[in-house]
Task: structure prediction
Amino acid sequence: MINSACLIVSKPLGVEISALGIRTAWACHQNGFECKLLFTEEGVWCLTDNPGYHTSMIKDFFGEDGEVAVVREELEKRGIDEDALVDGVEVIDAEEVAELCEDFETVNYF
Amino acid sequence: MSKTLTIMLMSGSAENEDAQFATNLAEAALEKGHKVQMYLFGNAVNISKKEEPIEGDLHIAPRLVEHIEPTRNFERMARLTEKGADISTCHTNEHARGIESKEYVKDVKWGDVGGSFTKYLMTSDVLLSVGH
Result:
């Protein structure tokens, strides 16, 4: 298997899982695997330009041509404006998530 | 036809049933002749280490011991490597828990996501991430 989508559903602080997802995407990307990060549910908070590990890793991921997407409806539910996100995030509709997953051979869920 | 199953496990013993599920699934797959690779991430690194039991009375009620016993995964982990599973851990998550120097269950290996997991990914037919 050579490509992966990493779905991040966990919040950035208080739990470890979202950091594991970002690290996994980074590791895959750095090893030459096509990899896309998709943030949904509580994971959308990882994209709000908070100080610390998550934001720095996401910016580095962008710097290495990594792709990052977020689900529009999950932002709306939490009152997060798209302008508040780290630059470069693609906002997609919930109905596009299944199609995105079909484009990848592996899907990891964090 | 034999397939290669990779499990990324992110839960440890007792916190939920994920570790039980993953180790039971791995054992069943091995018994069916499939290859199993398991990457222990997050709290799952706790089940990579050898048990360090105390001597003597546990001071735990027998019915509680009986309740806890199925959630402990030390013996199942050892059985998996004996049956040929390739299991490695995230040493960074071990470091976070202060357990990096503790001895692994037999044949479980030190690892990292960039090396061990991506190597598993290259040779997987099926990937299952388990944890919440």
In short: The first strand of chain A starts at residue 3 and ends at 8. The CA atoms of residues 25 and 31 of chain A lie 10 Å apart.
